[in-house]
Specification:
disordered N terminus, 48% helix, 434 Repressor (Amino-terminal Domain), elongated, Rossmann fold, 15 helices, 12 strands, 3 domains, 5-stranded parallel beta sheet
């Protein structure tokens, strides 16, 4: 809107002449279309301001950078912790406003490297940054490196990706998490001798593999009365975890503990309850959700290790904002802490 007879005669042609560019370039700048050099953008905006072509509010919006477009790629399925993570992305728009970002969440099949690669490449065409749960696979590593060449930043969530050009990792020290779970298991079991089982989402997640190693190592070091039986994979699916747990309980009558490395702990608890073993088999899990909270309350789950959902998303957004501003990726980003949650300290 223009005020006064002189200003009413000012149009794109006058702005273009003052800035020394074409009217098409002025149109591209004022409508936030790509393909214009930053110096030219500044020249056009200065000319528009000098001529009073834009009201103050419109000029502020024009000077503000385009929102950074971020995508969170998460595995689909019954892992309630990951579903809650996705829900947070969808509802936390107001908290992202200071960072000038737009976030959206996409759920994909979580254990197929090819699908993950295709999703990364597809989403990169309309995103400035992608946060995702990485599968440890050469195809995924190559896709991340390809995106880095195109200046599309990626960061890994919960499970990292080795020898890649991802910008940062947002998650727990998974080896320390596994050792913590092992320490809890040994202390809860006490002097009893017996077997301990592990159920993972998939060894294709580096984070799950690191938790497995940490858990086994501390049991070998400190609890020789406990024998670890072969790891089972449940793909973070409650029904698969239920079947795996039933089989373990049947195969090992002297089973004294189960460590669920991934999600869908409700499947494990269901099997323990049906067998009447939920109060004498030590059960350690991950991720505080409504279902694991209920399991802690009724005593079928003894302890869990938790990664704060809010911090996970906000750290991710801060990292992307740092990268856009040319700062170190981890500037001002708090490291993720392992929280041990019991029924006596439920938040």
């Amino acid at each position: 809107m223009k005020v006064g007879s002189e200003k009413s005669r000012i149009g794109i042609a006058e702005v273009a002449a003052r800035a020394g560019v074409s009217t098409a370039t002025v149109d591209r700048v004022l409508n936030h279309r790509p393909g214009v050099r930053p110096a030219t953008v500044q020249a056009v905006l200065k000319a528009a301001a000098d001529l009073g072509y834009l009201p103050q509010d419109d000029l502020y919006r024009a000077l503000r950078p385009q929102p950074m477009r971020l995508v969170f790629l998460l595995p689909a399925g019954t892992n309630r912790f990951l579903n809650m993570l996705g829900d947070f992305v969808s509802i936390a728009h107001d908290q992202f406003e200071p960072f000038n970002v737009q976030c959206r969440c996409r759920y994909i099949e979580g254990f197929n490297p090819q699908i993950l690669v295709e999703s990364l490449l597809r989403e990169s065409r309309r995103a400035d940054g992608i946060a995702f749960m990485a599968l440890e696979h050469p195809l995924v590593r190559e896709a991340v490196n390809t995106l880095a060449e195109k200046n599309v930043h990626t960061l890994t969530l919960i499970s990292d990706l080795s020898s890649s050009r991802r910008a940062a990792y947002v998650g727990l020290d998974n080896r320390a998490a596994g050792r913590s779970a092992g320490l809890l298991m040994g202390r809860f079991v006490g002097p009893r001798a017996g077997k301990v089982a592990m159920i993972a989402g998939s060894r294709n997640y580096r984070g799950h593999e690191e938790r497995e190693m940490g858990f086994q190592h501390i049991l070998e070091e400190k609890f020789p009365n406990l024998t670890v039986v072969g790891l089972r994979e449940g793909h973070d699916d409650a029904s698969i975890n239920y079947r795996q747990s039933k089989q373990l309980l049947k195969q090992y009558p002297d089973l004294v503990g189960i460590y669920n490395i991934g999600g869908a702990s409700d499947g494990v608890a269901q099997a323990l309850k049906e067998a009447g073993r939920d109060q004498n088999t030590v059960f350690i899990g991950h991720g505080l959700t409504p279902d694991t909270r209920a399991l802690l309350v009724d005593g079928s789950l003894d302890a869990l290790l938790n990664q704060n959902l809010h911090s996970t998303i906000m750290n991710s957004v801060r990292i992307f904002a740092n990268l856009r501003a040319g700062r170190d990726a981890m500037a001002g980003v708090e490291p993720m802490h392992i929280s041990v949650v019991l029924n006596e300290n439920l938040p």
